[in-house]
Every structure is written in C-alpha cells, then in structure tokens.
Amino acid sequence: MVQQVMMGIGLTLMLAVSAMAQEQPLASSVSSTRPTDPLGSWNDGPTKAAILQFVQDITKEGGPKFVPPEQRIATFDNDGTLWCEQPVVQFEFAVYRIKAMAVDHPEWKEQEPYKSVLAGDVQRLVDDLANGGHEFLKVIETSHAGMSVEEFDRHVRDFFATAKHPKLKVAYTQLAYSPMVELLAYLRANGFKTYICSGGGIDFMRATSEETYGIVPENVIGTNGRNVFKQVDGKWQLFKTADHLFLNDKATKPTGIDLHIGRKPIFAGGNVRTGGDIGMLTYCHSNTLPSFQLLVNHDDDKREYAYAEKDNASLKQAKAQGWNVVNIKSDWKTIFSKD
C-alpha cells in the first residue's frame, strides 16, 4: 500500500514537472511576441498618442482617413528639429572652412562678416539669418563655392570626423534627437517617404543624412546654388557656385518642397527658434488629405538648451492652427543618441 502511494506521488510530481516544462516555452513565446514600442524614447502623453493615432488612421485601408502610400510624404526641418542647433552645425563648418582659407586672405581680419567669424562670433550669423541672411549667405558662398561637389563632400566628412560639440564634447552626429530618429523610422515602416527640408546647405546635409537619419541624399531639400558641369584637367565634374543662390527657409520651404517632390506633405516637423518652419507647417496643413504638424519647443535647459522666439510666432501659430507641440522637457524620455 505504502509503495503504491509513493508511486502515485512520484507520478504526480513527474506530470507536474512535465506540465511546467511545456508551459515555459509558451510563456516565453508570449513574451517574445509582445509588441515593442516604436517610439520608446518618447514619454507617454497626448503628443505621442496623437502621432500613433494619426499613423494608425491613415494606414487603415477602407478607413475614412486612409492615405495611399504614394501620398505619404513627411518633411522635416533639420537644425533644432532632428539634431541640436546650439550651435548651428553648418555655421561651425563655415567657421572651420573660413579659418582654413584665411591664411590666403589677411584682409578678412578687418572685413565683416569674416572678422566676426574668425573671432568666433557665430551668433552674429544666427541673428543675421533671422533677418534676411545676407551676411550668412556671404559666408556660405565663400566657404562652400568654387570647388567640385566631390571636394566639398570630402571637406564636410573631414569636418565631421574630427569636430566635437563645444559643450557636450561628442561628435555632432551623436547629437541627433533619438525621439525624432525613432519617428522617422516609424513613419518609413508605415509607408512614408521621409525628407529633410531645411535652410541648411543641401550638399552639406546630404553628406551625413543617410547614416544619421536614414534619409537618402536624394530626399534632402536645402539651400543651394547653381552647380556647373565642366571639364577640369581632362575630368568632367560638377562645381559648386554661388550663382542663383536659393535660400530654403520660411516662405520658400513650400517652394522647395514643390520643386523637389511635387506633392504636399501630410506630415511636417519643425521647431521654435526663428519662425523658419511656419511656412512648411502651414503648407502641410493646407493639404486636403489628413495631415499632422509637429513643432519642437526647446524648453529643457538641463538636458539640452532652452530658447524661444521674441514674438513667440511659431507657438502662437501652433495654438491658432491646432498643431502638435513637442515640449522636450516633458515629451522626450531621452534626447540624444549618445544618452
């Protein structure tokens, strides 16, 4: 009798262990199929929820807000929207080039805007850009033109290989905003074509856009001059010039989008600083298709920088038009890819 009881207990234990062994893979399977958060660097809140809902709505075939993939165009400013703009990276590159060229131009020590650039007063160019950009364009023309596109690309890549942010002491490409890089990837995963539309130089941004954001060079829209195809030393090359310079900023951003893409975006992202993205977001908002406007507000002086516009033009327009405002302090769990 005792022997039968012991055998029964042993059989029960064996069955229990067997059941546990069978259940374990099931639990693991459930865990492994749990959906991951496509916007993991974002805090849960109204802005993140609005993004997810918008994408869900426009990708639902047969739904009232469905948008065909060929019309899923998303445009983003670069400086201050996709990466840190304190300081503006292309300004730093221009300083880098002007200093290298100044050896052959001693007169620049007394000529503006070169005098300020050589003294490290980049803020002068920032202020000028907000007021028409005449000095900014002069510096860009001098530091960017007169060379082949390939040579310019080498200068840009050499700059990024060595230059570091003056405060954070890391490579500039490490200062891409993780939440925005995630957003770009999320949109592409849902059939969007993502574009940069920025006041920055088109060739400057193309040098790093793919490795930094996953945005291919042909999807970059920016300030540009006329390139000339000519033969030098028996080799045909494209050369950068300062002729017919097109400043892709403010009200000209919609012009650049129409010229390069030929479709209105249904998603557009910009940021607070100079009011430079109001035109692009307004253009996106005018789309007869469902659309989404995103404005990054820099309000986190501890993890990044806090700054605003004197007239609050961008935030006022966002409030009036019902655009979605990203407050970095509360909406972003992490900011930089380096974090």
Would you kindly provide a written description of the structure presented here, covering whatever features stand out?
With 339 residues, the chain is of the alpha/beta class. It starts with a helix and ends in an 8-residue tail after the last helix. Helix 3 crosses helix 6. A hairpin with a 2-residue loop joins strand 4 (227-232) and strand 5. Residues 1-32 have low confidence and may be disordered. The protein has a 6-stranded parallel β-sheet, sandwiched between helices. The chain has a two-stranded antiparallel sheet with strand order 4-5. The chain is 43% helix and 13% strand. It has helices at 2-32, 46-58, 89-101, 114-118, 123-129, 134-144, 149-162, 178-189, 202-206, 209-213, 253-260, 278-285, 313-321, 328-331, and strands spanning 73-76, 193-201, 220-223, 227-232, 235-240, 267-271, 292-297, 324-327. Keywords: Hydrolase, Signal. GO terms for molecular function: hydrolase activity. Pfam families: HAD (PF12710).
